[in-house]
Amino acid sequence: MRLETIAINNLRRRKSRLAFLIAGLLIGIATVVTLISLSTTLTEDIQIKMENYGANILITPQSDDLSLNYGGINLGGVSLDPQEIREADLSKISGIRNSRNIAAVAPKVLGALEVRGQRVMMMGVDPEKEFQLKKWWKVNGLPLKNEYDLVAGAEVAAKLGLVLGDSVEIGGETFTLTGILANTGSQDDQILIASLPVTQRLLGKEGTVSLVEVAALCGDCPVSEMVTQISEVLPGVNVSAIQQVVKTRMHALDQFRNFSLAVAAVVLLIGALVVFVTMMGSVNERTREIGIFRALGFRRSHIMHLILLESTVVSIVAGILGFLVGMGVTYLVLPLMTENEVSMHWDPLLAGGAVLLALLVGASASFYPALKASRLDPTEALRAL
Amino acid sequence: MPFVHLKQLDKHYESDADCVIALDKLELAIEEGCFLGVMGPSGSGKSTLLSILGGLCHPTSGKVLVDDIDLYGLNSEKRADFRREYLGFVFQSFNLIPYLTALENVMLPLAVKKMPGAEKKQRAVEVLGRVGLSHRIGHLPNQLSGGEQERVAIARALVNEPPLILADEPTGSLDIATSREIMDLFKQLNQEGQTIIMVTHNDEIRPYFDRTVVLRDGAIDSDSARTPKAVPQAG
Predict the structure, then answer these.
(1) ipTM of the prediction
(2) Tens of pLDDT along B178-188?
Protein backbone atom coordinates (compact mmCIF):
# COMPACT_ATOMS: atom_id res chain seq x y z
CA MET A 1 0.00 0.00 0.00
CA ARG A 2 1.38 3.30 -1.11
CA LEU A 3 -0.18 6.60 -2.13
CA GLU A 4 -0.40 5.22 -5.64
CA THR A 5 -2.59 2.38 -4.42
CA ILE A 6 -5.04 4.84 -2.89
CA ALA A 7 -5.13 6.99 -6.01
CA ILE A 8 -5.62 4.07 -8.34
CA ASN A 9 -8.28 2.45 -6.19
CA ASN A 10 -10.15 5.72 -5.94
CA LEU A 11 -10.14 6.08 -9.70
CA ARG A 12 -10.91 2.42 -10.29
CA ARG A 13 -13.87 2.27 -7.93
CA ARG A 14 -15.43 5.59 -8.90
CA LYS A 15 -15.80 4.87 -12.56
CA SER A 16 -18.31 7.53 -13.55
CA ARG A 17 -16.18 10.32 -12.14
CA LEU A 18 -13.13 8.84 -13.81
CA ALA A 19 -14.98 8.65 -17.12
CA PHE A 20 -16.03 12.27 -16.81
CA LEU A 21 -12.53 13.44 -15.98
CA ILE A 22 -10.99 11.50 -18.83
CA ALA A 23 -13.68 12.62 -21.27
CA GLY A 24 -13.13 16.29 -20.46
CA LEU A 25 -9.43 16.11 -21.11
CA LEU A 26 -9.74 13.62 -23.94
CA ILE A 27 -12.01 15.86 -26.00
CA GLY A 28 -9.53 18.69 -25.69
CA ILE A 29 -6.52 16.57 -26.57
CA ALA A 30 -8.30 14.76 -29.40
CA THR A 31 -9.28 18.10 -30.94
CA VAL A 32 -5.75 19.37 -30.76
CA VAL A 33 -4.38 16.16 -32.25
CA THR A 34 -7.01 16.16 -35.00
CA LEU A 35 -6.35 19.76 -35.93
CA ILE A 36 -2.59 19.39 -35.86
CA SER A 37 -2.52 16.17 -37.85
CA LEU A 38 -5.14 17.52 -40.27
CA SER A 39 -3.28 20.74 -40.75
CA THR A 40 0.06 18.95 -41.24
CA THR A 41 -1.42 16.58 -43.76
CA LEU A 42 -3.41 19.30 -45.49
CA THR A 43 -0.47 21.66 -45.53
CA GLU A 44 1.39 19.00 -47.39
CA ASP A 45 -1.57 18.52 -49.67
CA ILE A 46 -1.86 22.24 -50.29
CA GLN A 47 1.85 22.40 -50.89
CA ILE A 48 1.64 19.68 -53.49
CA LYS A 49 -1.25 21.46 -55.15
CA MET A 50 0.51 24.77 -55.08
CA GLU A 51 3.71 23.36 -56.41
CA ASN A 52 1.71 22.15 -59.31
CA TYR A 53 0.09 25.48 -59.68
CA GLY A 54 2.54 27.36 -61.82
CA ALA A 55 6.03 28.57 -61.38
CA ASN A 56 7.24 30.99 -58.80
CA ILE A 57 10.75 31.64 -60.07
CA LEU A 58 11.48 32.95 -63.53
CA ILE A 59 14.84 32.71 -65.30
CA THR A 60 15.17 35.08 -68.25
CA PRO A 61 18.12 36.11 -70.36
CA GLN A 62 19.93 39.23 -69.36
CA SER A 63 19.53 41.80 -72.05
CA ASP A 64 20.38 45.43 -72.17
CA ASP A 65 16.95 46.54 -73.12
CA LEU A 66 16.54 50.12 -74.05
CA SER A 67 13.02 51.10 -73.56
CA LEU A 68 11.83 53.77 -75.94
CA ASN A 69 9.30 55.46 -73.84
CA TYR A 70 8.70 59.16 -73.67
CA GLY A 71 5.89 61.09 -72.08
CA GLY A 72 3.81 58.03 -71.56
CA ILE A 73 3.96 57.05 -75.19
CA ASN A 74 5.52 53.64 -75.73
CA LEU A 75 7.53 53.47 -78.89
CA GLY A 76 8.59 49.84 -78.48
CA GLY A 77 11.95 48.63 -77.34
CA VAL A 78 15.28 48.00 -78.81
CA SER A 79 16.93 44.86 -77.65
CA LEU A 80 20.62 45.24 -77.63
CA ASP A 81 22.60 42.08 -77.87
CA PRO A 82 20.16 39.66 -76.30
CA GLN A 83 21.83 36.66 -74.75
CA GLU A 84 20.07 33.33 -74.77
CA ILE A 85 20.31 30.94 -71.84
CA ARG A 86 22.43 27.92 -72.51
CA GLU A 87 20.43 24.76 -72.02
CA ALA A 88 23.46 22.87 -70.73
CA ASP A 89 23.75 25.31 -67.80
CA LEU A 90 20.38 24.35 -66.46
CA SER A 91 21.67 21.15 -64.91
CA LYS A 92 23.58 23.36 -62.46
CA ILE A 93 20.30 24.30 -60.83
CA SER A 94 20.01 20.84 -59.37
CA GLY A 95 23.29 21.50 -57.57
CA ILE A 96 22.10 24.36 -55.39
CA ARG A 97 21.80 23.91 -51.64
CA ASN A 98 17.99 23.96 -51.59
CA SER A 99 17.73 21.77 -54.66
CA ARG A 100 15.33 19.39 -52.98
CA ASN A 101 12.86 22.24 -52.75
CA ILE A 102 12.65 22.46 -56.52
CA ALA A 103 9.60 20.72 -57.89
CA ALA A 104 10.13 21.37 -61.58
CA VAL A 105 12.42 23.21 -63.97
CA ALA A 106 10.63 23.92 -67.23
CA PRO A 107 12.79 25.40 -69.99
CA LYS A 108 11.21 26.71 -73.17
CA VAL A 109 12.24 28.28 -76.39
CA LEU A 110 10.07 30.86 -78.10
CA GLY A 111 10.00 32.23 -81.59
CA ALA A 112 7.83 33.23 -84.51
CA LEU A 113 7.35 30.91 -87.47
CA GLU A 114 5.25 30.80 -90.56
CA VAL A 115 2.54 28.15 -90.53
CA ARG A 116 -0.03 27.82 -93.31
CA GLY A 117 0.85 31.28 -94.50
CA GLN A 118 0.47 33.02 -91.15
CA ARG A 119 3.04 34.06 -88.61
CA VAL A 120 2.42 32.37 -85.30
CA MET A 121 4.24 32.03 -82.03
CA MET A 122 5.83 28.66 -81.49
CA MET A 123 6.98 27.36 -78.13
CA GLY A 124 9.26 24.38 -77.62
CA VAL A 125 8.89 22.76 -74.23
CA ASP A 126 9.99 19.79 -72.17
CA PRO A 127 6.59 18.07 -72.46
CA GLU A 128 6.66 16.24 -69.14
CA LYS A 129 7.78 19.24 -67.06
CA GLU A 130 5.55 21.71 -68.84
CA PHE A 131 2.36 19.75 -68.52
CA GLN A 132 3.20 18.96 -64.89
CA LEU A 133 3.63 22.65 -64.16
CA LYS A 134 0.55 23.85 -66.02
CA LYS A 135 -2.07 21.80 -64.30
CA TRP A 136 -4.75 24.15 -65.56
CA TRP A 137 -4.15 23.23 -69.17
CA LYS A 138 -7.02 21.14 -70.45
CA VAL A 139 -5.92 19.25 -73.51
CA ASN A 140 -8.54 18.18 -75.96
CA GLY A 141 -6.86 15.12 -77.40
CA LEU A 142 -3.41 14.09 -76.18
CA PRO A 143 -0.52 16.09 -74.78
CA LEU A 144 2.86 15.93 -76.47
CA LYS A 145 4.40 12.49 -76.64
CA ASN A 146 6.53 12.09 -79.72
CA GLU A 147 8.96 14.51 -81.21
CA TYR A 148 6.67 15.50 -84.05
CA ASP A 149 3.53 15.90 -82.02
CA LEU A 150 1.99 19.32 -81.86
CA VAL A 151 -0.45 20.95 -79.45
CA ALA A 152 -2.19 24.14 -80.44
CA GLY A 153 -3.78 26.92 -78.40
CA ALA A 154 -7.50 27.37 -78.90
CA GLU A 155 -7.31 30.64 -80.80
CA VAL A 156 -4.45 29.72 -83.05
CA ALA A 157 -6.15 26.43 -83.89
CA ALA A 158 -9.28 28.30 -84.93
CA LYS A 159 -7.26 30.84 -86.86
CA LEU A 160 -5.39 28.18 -88.80
CA GLY A 161 -8.43 25.94 -89.11
CA LEU A 162 -6.67 23.05 -87.39
CA VAL A 163 -8.51 19.96 -86.27
CA LEU A 164 -7.21 17.00 -84.27
CA GLY A 165 -5.13 14.59 -86.31
CA ASP A 166 -4.19 17.19 -88.93
CA SER A 167 -0.76 17.10 -90.42
CA VAL A 168 0.91 20.48 -90.13
CA GLU A 169 3.98 21.48 -92.01
CA ILE A 170 6.30 23.90 -90.29
CA GLY A 171 9.63 24.89 -91.72
CA GLY A 172 9.87 21.77 -93.79
CA GLU A 173 9.02 19.39 -90.94
CA THR A 174 5.67 17.60 -90.66
CA PHE A 175 3.91 17.58 -87.32
CA THR A 176 0.78 15.77 -86.23
CA LEU A 177 -1.73 17.78 -84.21
CA THR A 178 -2.46 15.54 -81.23
CA GLY A 179 -4.15 18.03 -78.93
CA ILE A 180 -5.85 21.40 -78.73
CA LEU A 181 -5.80 23.37 -75.49
CA ALA A 182 -9.11 24.49 -74.09
CA ASN A 183 -9.40 28.25 -73.90
CA THR A 184 -7.23 29.55 -71.07
CA GLY A 185 -7.81 33.26 -71.63
CA SER A 186 -4.07 33.79 -71.64
CA GLN A 187 -1.26 34.01 -74.16
CA ASP A 188 -1.21 30.24 -74.32
CA ASP A 189 -4.28 30.38 -76.58
CA GLN A 190 -2.18 31.78 -79.41
CA ILE A 191 0.75 29.44 -79.22
CA LEU A 192 1.74 26.26 -80.98
CA ILE A 193 3.52 23.92 -78.62
CA ALA A 194 6.02 21.30 -79.69
CA SER A 195 8.88 19.52 -78.05
CA LEU A 196 12.01 21.48 -77.22
CA PRO A 197 14.73 19.97 -79.47
CA VAL A 198 12.74 20.13 -82.66
CA THR A 199 11.59 23.68 -81.98
CA GLN A 200 15.14 24.76 -81.23
CA ARG A 201 16.17 23.31 -84.55
CA LEU A 202 13.36 25.06 -86.42
CA LEU A 203 14.15 28.40 -84.80
CA GLY A 204 17.87 27.95 -85.24
CA LYS A 205 18.43 28.20 -81.51
CA GLU A 206 20.03 24.85 -80.81
CA GLY A 207 21.29 24.48 -77.27
CA THR A 208 19.65 27.61 -75.96
CA VAL A 209 16.39 28.41 -74.28
CA SER A 210 14.49 31.67 -74.08
CA LEU A 211 12.99 31.33 -70.68
CA VAL A 212 12.90 28.93 -67.75
CA GLU A 213 10.08 28.61 -65.29
CA VAL A 214 10.98 27.07 -61.95
CA ALA A 215 8.50 25.78 -59.42
CA ALA A 216 9.96 25.80 -55.96
CA LEU A 217 8.00 24.07 -53.28
CA CYS A 218 8.36 26.45 -50.48
CA GLY A 219 6.28 25.76 -47.45
CA ASP A 220 8.84 27.44 -45.30
CA CYS A 221 12.04 27.97 -47.26
CA PRO A 222 12.73 31.52 -48.33
CA VAL A 223 12.25 31.81 -52.07
CA SER A 224 14.46 34.84 -52.24
CA GLU A 225 17.31 32.71 -50.95
CA MET A 226 16.73 30.18 -53.68
CA VAL A 227 16.75 32.98 -56.21
CA THR A 228 20.16 34.00 -54.94
CA GLN A 229 21.40 30.43 -55.07
CA ILE A 230 20.26 30.03 -58.68
CA SER A 231 21.81 33.35 -59.64
CA GLU A 232 25.12 32.14 -58.24
CA VAL A 233 25.20 29.04 -60.41
CA LEU A 234 23.83 30.80 -63.49
CA PRO A 235 25.76 34.01 -63.92
CA GLY A 236 24.66 36.31 -66.66
CA VAL A 237 20.96 35.60 -66.45
CA ASN A 238 18.07 37.24 -64.66
CA VAL A 239 16.51 35.24 -61.88
CA SER A 240 13.48 36.68 -60.23
CA ALA A 241 10.85 35.44 -57.85
CA ILE A 242 7.26 36.03 -58.60
CA GLN A 243 6.67 37.46 -55.13
CA GLN A 244 2.94 37.62 -55.50
CA VAL A 245 2.71 33.88 -55.96
CA VAL A 246 5.07 33.14 -53.11
CA LYS A 247 3.37 35.45 -50.67
CA THR A 248 -0.09 34.19 -51.47
CA ARG A 249 0.98 30.62 -50.88
CA MET A 250 2.60 31.36 -47.59
CA HIS A 251 -0.35 33.44 -46.50
CA ALA A 252 -2.86 30.72 -47.26
CA LEU A 253 -0.85 28.16 -45.31
CA ASP A 254 -0.28 30.49 -42.38
CA GLN A 255 -3.93 31.33 -42.15
CA PHE A 256 -4.93 27.72 -42.09
CA ARG A 257 -2.38 26.94 -39.39
CA ASN A 258 -3.37 29.91 -37.24
CA PHE A 259 -7.01 29.03 -37.49
CA SER A 260 -6.30 25.44 -36.41
CA LEU A 261 -4.25 26.60 -33.46
CA ALA A 262 -6.91 29.04 -32.32
CA VAL A 263 -9.63 26.41 -32.42
CA ALA A 264 -7.38 23.92 -30.64
CA ALA A 265 -6.58 26.43 -27.91
CA VAL A 266 -10.25 27.16 -27.25
CA VAL A 267 -11.20 23.49 -27.07
CA LEU A 268 -8.24 22.74 -24.84
CA LEU A 269 -9.25 25.55 -22.51
CA ILE A 270 -12.71 24.06 -22.23
CA GLY A 271 -11.14 20.67 -21.49
CA ALA A 272 -9.01 22.22 -18.76
CA LEU A 273 -12.10 23.83 -17.29
CA VAL A 274 -13.91 20.50 -17.19
CA VAL A 275 -10.97 18.93 -15.39
CA PHE A 276 -10.78 21.86 -12.99
CA VAL A 277 -14.47 21.76 -12.14
CA THR A 278 -14.51 17.98 -11.76
CA MET A 279 -11.38 17.98 -9.61
CA MET A 280 -12.76 20.81 -7.51
CA GLY A 281 -16.03 18.95 -7.06
CA SER A 282 -14.11 15.84 -6.19
CA VAL A 283 -12.14 17.70 -3.53
CA ASN A 284 -15.30 19.12 -2.01
CA GLU A 285 -16.93 15.73 -2.09
CA ARG A 286 -13.85 14.21 -0.46
CA THR A 287 -13.49 16.80 2.28
CA ARG A 288 -14.24 14.21 4.93
CA GLU A 289 -11.96 11.66 3.38
CA ILE A 290 -9.12 14.15 3.28
CA GLY A 291 -9.79 14.91 6.95
CA ILE A 292 -9.41 11.21 7.71
CA PHE A 293 -6.13 11.05 5.82
CA ARG A 294 -4.87 14.05 7.76
CA ALA A 295 -5.99 12.56 11.08
CA LEU A 296 -4.17 9.34 10.21
CA GLY A 297 -0.97 11.28 9.84
CA PHE A 298 -0.80 12.23 6.17
CA ARG A 299 1.10 15.41 5.63
CA ARG A 300 -0.28 18.25 3.52
CA SER A 301 2.26 17.35 0.90
CA HIS A 302 0.96 13.76 0.92
CA ILE A 303 -2.59 14.99 0.21
CA MET A 304 -1.37 17.18 -2.59
CA HIS A 305 0.71 14.34 -3.93
CA LEU A 306 -2.35 12.08 -3.84
CA ILE A 307 -4.60 14.48 -5.79
CA LEU A 308 -1.90 15.27 -8.34
CA LEU A 309 -1.17 11.58 -8.69
CA GLU A 310 -4.77 10.95 -9.62
CA SER A 311 -4.74 13.77 -12.12
CA THR A 312 -1.52 12.41 -13.59
CA VAL A 313 -3.04 8.99 -14.14
CA VAL A 314 -6.11 10.59 -15.68
CA SER A 315 -3.96 12.85 -17.85
CA ILE A 316 -1.81 10.04 -19.19
CA VAL A 317 -4.84 7.91 -20.04
CA ALA A 318 -6.60 10.91 -21.57
CA GLY A 319 -3.45 11.85 -23.50
CA ILE A 320 -3.06 8.41 -25.04
CA LEU A 321 -6.76 7.99 -25.79
CA GLY A 322 -6.95 11.57 -27.04
CA PHE A 323 -4.13 10.90 -29.46
CA LEU A 324 -5.80 7.74 -30.77
CA VAL A 325 -9.21 9.38 -31.06
CA GLY A 326 -7.65 12.41 -32.75
CA MET A 327 -5.90 10.22 -35.30
CA GLY A 328 -9.13 8.27 -35.83
CA VAL A 329 -11.06 11.46 -36.49
CA THR A 330 -8.34 12.64 -38.87
CA TYR A 331 -8.62 9.36 -40.71
CA LEU A 332 -12.39 9.78 -41.04
CA VAL A 333 -12.37 13.47 -41.90
CA LEU A 334 -9.41 13.58 -44.26
CA PRO A 335 -11.20 12.14 -47.31
CA LEU A 336 -13.85 14.85 -46.96
CA MET A 337 -11.28 17.61 -47.08
CA THR A 338 -9.13 16.58 -50.01
CA GLU A 339 -9.58 14.51 -53.11
CA ASN A 340 -5.88 13.75 -53.26
CA GLU A 341 -4.46 10.55 -51.87
CA VAL A 342 -2.80 11.83 -48.73
CA SER A 343 -1.19 9.47 -46.32
CA MET A 344 -1.59 10.02 -42.59
CA HIS A 345 1.50 10.33 -40.46
CA TRP A 346 1.80 8.44 -37.20
CA ASP A 347 4.06 10.99 -35.68
CA PRO A 348 5.60 9.77 -32.39
CA LEU A 349 6.37 13.39 -31.62
CA LEU A 350 2.68 14.24 -31.84
CA ALA A 351 1.83 11.28 -29.59
CA GLY A 352 4.40 12.38 -27.02
CA GLY A 353 3.21 15.95 -27.35
CA ALA A 354 -0.39 14.90 -26.78
CA VAL A 355 0.48 13.09 -23.55
CA LEU A 356 2.68 15.95 -22.42
CA LEU A 357 -0.03 18.47 -23.18
CA ALA A 358 -2.58 16.36 -21.30
CA LEU A 359 -0.23 16.21 -18.31
CA LEU A 360 0.35 19.94 -18.43
CA VAL A 361 -3.34 20.80 -18.68
CA GLY A 362 -4.32 18.13 -16.14
CA ALA A 363 -1.70 19.23 -13.65
CA SER A 364 -2.45 22.92 -13.95
CA ALA A 365 -6.19 22.33 -13.69
CA SER A 366 -5.72 20.13 -10.60
CA PHE A 367 -3.12 22.22 -8.88
CA TYR A 368 -5.52 24.59 -7.18
CA PRO A 369 -7.94 21.82 -6.11
CA ALA A 370 -4.97 19.88 -4.72
CA LEU A 371 -3.72 22.91 -2.85
CA LYS A 372 -7.19 23.53 -1.48
CA ALA A 373 -7.46 19.91 -0.39
CA SER A 374 -4.12 20.01 1.39
CA ARG A 375 -5.13 23.15 3.26
CA LEU A 376 -8.41 21.73 4.54
CA ASP A 377 -8.64 22.00 8.27
CA PRO A 378 -8.88 18.41 9.49
CA THR A 379 -11.35 19.33 12.24
CA GLU A 380 -13.57 21.08 9.73
CA ALA A 381 -13.25 18.02 7.57
CA LEU A 382 -14.16 15.67 10.41
CA ARG A 383 -17.13 17.50 11.77
CA ALA A 384 -18.02 14.44 13.79
CA LEU A 385 -14.99 14.85 15.99
CA MET B 1 6.00 11.74 34.67
CA PRO B 2 2.54 11.44 33.07
CA PHE B 3 2.41 10.20 29.46
CA VAL B 4 -0.14 12.84 28.44
CA HIS B 5 -0.14 16.20 30.19
CA LEU B 6 -2.62 18.99 29.45
CA LYS B 7 -1.57 22.31 30.94
CA GLN B 8 -3.89 25.28 31.41
CA LEU B 9 -5.76 24.36 28.24
CA ASP B 10 -8.09 27.05 26.93
CA LYS B 11 -10.18 26.91 23.81
CA HIS B 12 -12.53 29.67 22.71
CA TYR B 13 -14.63 29.63 19.58
CA GLU B 14 -15.19 33.15 18.44
CA SER B 15 -18.11 33.98 16.24
CA ASP B 16 -19.33 37.41 15.20
CA ALA B 17 -21.74 37.80 18.07
CA ASP B 18 -20.15 36.04 20.99
CA CYS B 19 -17.36 33.92 22.27
CA VAL B 20 -18.00 30.33 23.27
CA ILE B 21 -15.69 28.89 25.84
CA ALA B 22 -15.18 25.22 24.98
CA LEU B 23 -12.35 24.48 27.39
CA ASP B 24 -11.52 26.52 30.42
CA LYS B 25 -8.07 26.22 32.01
CA LEU B 26 -8.14 22.45 31.81
CA GLU B 27 -5.44 20.55 33.72
CA LEU B 28 -5.17 16.82 33.19
CA ALA B 29 -2.41 14.26 33.53
CA ILE B 30 -2.81 10.75 32.13
CA GLU B 31 -0.50 7.87 32.97
CA GLU B 32 0.72 5.31 30.46
CA GLY B 33 -1.43 2.18 30.24
CA CYS B 34 -4.53 3.98 31.43
CA PHE B 35 -8.01 3.43 29.94
CA LEU B 36 -9.52 6.86 30.41
CA GLY B 37 -13.15 7.64 29.77
CA VAL B 38 -14.08 11.27 29.12
CA MET B 39 -17.77 11.83 29.74
CA GLY B 40 -20.12 14.73 30.01
CA PRO B 41 -23.23 16.18 28.40
CA SER B 42 -23.04 17.43 24.82
CA GLY B 43 -21.43 20.84 24.65
CA SER B 44 -19.26 20.09 27.66
CA GLY B 45 -16.11 20.28 25.54
CA LYS B 46 -15.20 16.60 25.34
CA SER B 47 -15.03 16.49 21.53
CA THR B 48 -12.92 19.65 21.51
CA LEU B 49 -10.62 18.02 24.03
CA LEU B 50 -10.19 14.99 21.80
CA SER B 51 -9.48 17.13 18.73
CA ILE B 52 -6.83 19.05 20.62
CA LEU B 53 -5.34 15.85 22.00
CA GLY B 54 -5.26 14.50 18.45
CA GLY B 55 -3.25 17.47 17.24
CA LEU B 56 -6.07 18.47 14.90
CA CYS B 57 -7.13 21.72 16.50
CA HIS B 58 -5.07 24.51 18.00
CA PRO B 59 -5.91 25.43 21.60
CA THR B 60 -6.36 29.13 22.26
CA SER B 61 -3.74 28.86 24.97
CA GLY B 62 -2.07 26.23 27.09
CA LYS B 63 0.05 23.23 26.26
CA VAL B 64 -0.41 19.61 25.29
CA LEU B 65 2.54 17.37 26.14
CA VAL B 66 2.56 13.80 24.92
CA ASP B 67 5.64 11.77 25.81
CA ASP B 68 7.14 15.18 26.70
CA ILE B 69 6.58 16.46 23.14
CA ASP B 70 4.89 19.85 22.96
CA LEU B 71 2.29 19.04 20.34
CA TYR B 72 1.46 22.59 19.31
CA GLY B 73 5.09 23.65 19.30
CA LEU B 74 5.42 21.51 16.17
CA ASN B 75 4.56 22.80 12.72
CA SER B 76 1.62 21.35 10.87
CA GLU B 77 3.61 18.79 8.86
CA LYS B 78 5.54 17.60 11.93
CA ARG B 79 2.24 17.31 13.76
CA ALA B 80 1.01 15.05 10.97
CA ASP B 81 4.10 12.91 11.52
CA PHE B 82 3.35 12.90 15.23
CA ARG B 83 -0.18 11.68 14.61
CA ARG B 84 1.16 8.91 12.45
CA GLU B 85 3.73 7.75 15.00
CA TYR B 86 1.90 8.32 18.27
CA LEU B 87 -1.82 8.22 17.69
CA GLY B 88 -4.49 5.83 16.54
CA PHE B 89 -7.90 7.36 15.89
CA VAL B 90 -11.17 5.48 16.15
CA PHE B 91 -13.95 7.71 14.92
CA GLN B 92 -17.60 7.63 15.83
CA SER B 93 -18.79 6.91 12.33
CA PHE B 94 -15.87 4.58 11.58
CA ASN B 95 -14.73 6.87 8.76
CA LEU B 96 -13.52 4.11 6.52
CA ILE B 97 -12.54 5.03 2.98
CA PRO B 98 -15.37 3.64 0.85
CA TYR B 99 -13.27 2.69 -2.17
CA LEU B 100 -10.67 0.76 -0.22
CA THR B 101 -11.06 -2.81 1.06
CA ALA B 102 -10.82 -3.64 4.76
CA LEU B 103 -7.18 -4.59 4.32
CA GLU B 104 -6.38 -1.42 2.39
CA ASN B 105 -8.18 0.72 4.96
CA VAL B 106 -6.07 -0.83 7.69
CA MET B 107 -2.89 -0.23 5.70
CA LEU B 108 -3.80 3.43 5.17
CA PRO B 109 -1.59 4.86 7.98
CA LEU B 110 1.31 2.86 6.55
CA ALA B 111 0.83 4.25 3.03
CA VAL B 112 3.12 7.19 3.67
CA LYS B 113 5.65 5.18 5.66
CA LYS B 114 8.86 3.81 4.25
CA MET B 115 8.44 0.10 4.74
CA PRO B 116 8.48 -2.86 2.36
CA GLY B 117 5.03 -3.51 0.89
CA ALA B 118 5.03 -7.11 2.11
CA GLU B 119 5.67 -6.01 5.69
CA LYS B 120 2.84 -3.45 5.51
CA LYS B 121 0.50 -6.15 4.36
CA GLN B 122 1.68 -8.62 6.93
CA ARG B 123 1.14 -6.12 9.74
CA ALA B 124 -2.34 -5.23 8.50
CA VAL B 125 -3.32 -8.88 8.21
CA GLU B 126 -2.02 -9.48 11.69
CA VAL B 127 -4.02 -6.65 13.33
CA LEU B 128 -7.13 -7.67 11.41
CA GLY B 129 -6.59 -11.08 13.00
CA ARG B 130 -6.35 -9.46 16.40
CA VAL B 131 -9.75 -7.78 15.98
CA GLY B 132 -11.20 -11.03 14.63
CA LEU B 133 -11.71 -10.06 10.99
CA SER B 134 -9.27 -12.33 9.16
CA HIS B 135 -12.05 -13.70 7.00
CA ARG B 136 -13.22 -10.37 5.57
CA ILE B 137 -10.05 -8.60 4.56
CA GLY B 138 -11.01 -8.25 0.90
CA HIS B 139 -14.42 -6.66 1.48
CA LEU B 140 -15.32 -3.04 0.86
CA PRO B 141 -16.79 -1.12 3.82
CA ASN B 142 -20.32 -1.22 2.42
CA GLN B 143 -20.14 -5.03 2.41
CA LEU B 144 -19.43 -5.09 6.16
CA SER B 145 -21.79 -4.82 9.15
CA GLY B 146 -21.51 -1.92 11.58
CA GLY B 147 -19.59 -4.01 14.10
CA GLU B 148 -17.22 -5.24 11.44
CA GLN B 149 -16.61 -1.71 10.21
CA GLU B 150 -15.82 -0.68 13.77
CA ARG B 151 -13.32 -3.51 14.03
CA VAL B 152 -11.66 -2.39 10.80
CA ALA B 153 -11.45 1.12 12.25
CA ILE B 154 -9.84 -0.24 15.42
CA ALA B 155 -7.41 -2.34 13.40
CA ARG B 156 -6.51 0.77 11.42
CA ALA B 157 -5.82 2.64 14.67
CA LEU B 158 -3.60 -0.20 15.88
CA VAL B 159 -1.60 -0.95 12.78
CA ASN B 160 1.03 1.67 13.48
CA GLU B 161 1.49 0.36 17.04
CA PRO B 162 0.80 3.82 18.43
CA PRO B 163 1.37 4.47 22.13
CA LEU B 164 -1.99 6.24 22.40
CA ILE B 165 -5.45 5.45 21.02
CA LEU B 166 -8.09 8.15 20.84
CA ALA B 167 -11.64 6.92 20.42
CA ASP B 168 -14.68 9.10 19.82
CA GLU B 169 -18.01 7.47 20.74
CA PRO B 170 -16.95 4.15 19.25
CA THR B 171 -20.21 2.55 20.32
CA GLY B 172 -22.37 5.47 19.20
CA SER B 173 -23.81 3.73 16.18
CA LEU B 174 -23.80 0.13 17.40
CA ASP B 175 -26.45 -2.03 19.06
CA ILE B 176 -25.99 -3.13 22.65
CA ALA B 177 -24.58 -6.59 21.95
CA THR B 178 -22.08 -5.29 19.40
CA SER B 179 -21.15 -2.41 21.70
CA ARG B 180 -20.28 -4.93 24.37
CA GLU B 181 -18.08 -6.93 21.97
CA ILE B 182 -16.26 -3.79 20.89
CA MET B 183 -15.75 -2.62 24.48
CA ASP B 184 -14.42 -6.08 25.38
CA LEU B 185 -11.97 -5.70 22.54
CA PHE B 186 -10.83 -2.28 23.82
CA LYS B 187 -10.50 -3.68 27.35
CA GLN B 188 -8.41 -6.54 26.05
CA LEU B 189 -6.12 -4.12 24.18
CA ASN B 190 -5.81 -2.03 27.32
CA GLN B 191 -4.89 -5.11 29.34
CA GLU B 192 -2.14 -5.73 26.79
CA GLY B 193 -0.73 -2.34 27.81
CA GLN B 194 -2.41 0.00 25.34
CA THR B 195 -3.18 3.53 26.56
CA ILE B 196 -6.69 4.52 25.46
CA ILE B 197 -8.61 7.77 25.81
CA MET B 198 -12.28 7.39 24.93
CA VAL B 199 -14.94 10.07 24.67
CA THR B 200 -18.49 8.90 25.26
CA HIS B 201 -21.76 9.89 26.81
CA ASN B 202 -22.88 6.28 27.10
CA ASP B 203 -23.03 5.63 30.83
CA GLU B 204 -23.30 1.87 30.32
CA ILE B 205 -19.70 1.49 29.24
CA ARG B 206 -18.39 3.40 32.24
CA PRO B 207 -17.37 0.20 34.09
CA TYR B 208 -14.80 -0.56 31.40
CA PHE B 209 -12.73 2.52 32.23
CA ASP B 210 -9.85 2.61 34.71
CA ARG B 211 -10.54 6.24 35.24
CA THR B 212 -13.42 8.51 34.30
CA VAL B 213 -13.28 12.26 33.89
CA VAL B 214 -16.56 14.12 33.60
CA LEU B 215 -16.49 17.50 31.90
CA ARG B 216 -18.98 20.29 32.38
CA ASP B 217 -18.72 23.67 30.62
CA GLY B 218 -15.15 23.03 29.58
CA ALA B 219 -13.83 22.19 33.01
CA ILE B 220 -13.44 18.99 35.00
CA ASP B 221 -16.54 18.33 37.01
CA SER B 222 -15.37 15.10 38.56
CA ASP B 223 -12.35 12.81 38.18
CA SER B 224 -12.44 9.27 39.52
CA ALA B 225 -8.69 9.40 40.12
CA ARG B 226 -9.20 12.05 42.78
CA THR B 227 -12.13 10.27 44.38
CA PRO B 228 -10.71 6.82 45.05
CA LYS B 229 -13.17 3.99 44.91
CA ALA B 230 -14.80 3.42 48.25
CA VAL B 231 -12.79 0.93 50.16
CA PRO B 232 -14.88 -1.32 52.40
CA GLN B 233 -14.39 -0.11 55.94
CA ALA B 234 -13.16 -2.65 58.35
CA GLY B 235 -15.49 -3.59 61.12
Answers:
(1) 0.87
(2) 889 889 999 99
